[in-house]
Design goal:
Protein name: Hydroxymethylglutaryl-CoA lyase
Bound molecules: 3-hydroxy-3-methylglutaryl-coenzyme A, magnesium ion
Keywords: Lyase, Metal-binding
Organism: Streptomyces mesophilus
GO molecular function: hydroxymethylglutaryl-CoA lyase activity; metal ion binding
Strand content: 5-15%
Pfam families: HMGL-like
Shape: globular
Helix content: 40-55%
Radius of gyration: 17 Å
Strand order of the largest sheet: 2-1-11-10-9-6-5-4-3
Number of strands: 11
Length: 299
């Protein structure tokens, strides 16, 4: 049985733009986020308060956030790896943050310069301070299915780090297929193992990258399991600069096309969203990789 409604967690402005070679002007990012909101998206991940040398594409977080923080009816989560990042986000009035851990040691080192255990120690005060200030905390967990350096990732290893992040106080957990290698059976096996370990499905979201064209199939498998939070990126923008072979996220338009067809509510206007992705593609100077954007536009 499928859920009547899905909450789309839009990551294009963060996961998408962090991976663009070109630096997108702050005003274009702000306009992109305003247009995503106008298209009906209500959770729009805005940027990251990480080290500017690690992700130069998002180094303008301080300039961007005040330009969008007044948009009505929209949650604007931001990525925060450590207390320095939290200070920067709170200073600007952020009400939702996301920490980001890894199920594998290699990616943890490459993305955070820390072992998995050290990263959890780094997150602990971040989550505690956020919760004390009634700031919502999402936990990302990367490499939940496969890792470019370590290969297939055992389900029990993912469950261990997932539980640790939830035990630290994360309000929700997003299961990341960072390099897009998951297939539907693997998705259902991981969700079942998490449930068996005491993690309720309603604390879980899914975050698929579309490297092997499996993102929609994986999403449907997750919906059948009861998941109702799905991450996607407008136009299929995205990747991760610290994971080789990561390509774009599941395109929000492809997701909305499927959910509309299934009669599952999202609140998103597909025509308006597509127009936004076509506009952004013009700014970036290359067409959107989303099949739905291509089918619905003349780009
Ligand atoms: P580090 O070099 O170990 O940092 O990097 P450090 O703690 O040793 O500090 C070194 C210097 O950096 C200090 O300055 C700090 O103040 C400064 P100094 O005293 O030397 O002048 N610093 C900062 N400055 C600004 N903002 C900060 C900050 N933190 C320290 N927040 C660090 C550790 C975590 C900072 C670094 O590894 C980092 O920024 N990593 C971010 C990587 C990233 O953003 N990756 C992409 C997001 S994850 C992703 O895309 C996956 C996801 O989509 C899910 C999926 O698909 O799986 C979420
Ligand atoms: Mg990602």
């Amino acid at each position: 049985e499928l859920p009547p409604r899905v909450r789309i967690h839009e990551v294009g402005a963060r996961d998408g733009l962090q991976n663009e070679k070109a630096t997108v002007p702050t005003e274009v990012k702000a306009e992109f986020i305003r247009r995503l909101a106008a298209a009906g998206l209500t959770t729009i991940e805005a940027t990251s308060f990480v080290h500017p040398k690690w992700v130069p594409q998002l180094a303008d977080a301080e300039a961007l956030f005040p330009q969008i923080s007044g948009i009505e009816g929209v949650d604007l989560p931001v990525l925060v790896p450590n207390e320095r990042g939290l200070d920067r986000a709170l200073e600007l009035g952020a009400r939702r943050i996301a920490v980001f851990g890894s199920a594998t040691e290699t990616f943890s080192q490459k993305n955070l310069n820390r072992s998995v255990a050290e990263s959890l120690t780094m997150f602990e005060p971040v989550i505690a301070r956020a919760k004390a200030g009634k700031v919502h905390v999402r936990g990302y967990l990367s490499m939940c299915f496969g890792d470019p350096w370590e290969g297939a990732v055992p389900v029990h290893q993912v469950v261990g780090v997932a539980k640790a992040l939830l035990d630290l106080g994360c309000d929700e957990l997003s299961l990341g297929d960072t390099i897009g290698v998951a297939t539907p059976g693997h998705v259902q096996a991981l969700l079942a193992a998490l449930n068996e370990a005491g993690v309720p499905t309603d604390a879980l979201g899914v975050h698929f990258h579309d490297t092997y064209g499996q993102a929609l199939s994986n999403t449907l498998a997750a919906l059948q399991h009861g998941v109702t939070t799905v991450d996607a990126s407008a136009g299929g923008l995205g990747g991760c600069p610290y994971a080789k072979s990561a390509t774009g996220n599941l395109a929000t338009e492809d997701l909305v096309w499927m959910l509309d067809g299934l009669g599952i509510e999202t609140g998103v206007d597909l025509a308006e969203l597509t127009a936004t992705s076509v506009w952004l593609a013009e700014q970036l100077g290359r067409p959107s990789p989303s099949r739905t954007v291509r089918a619905l536009s003349h780009q």
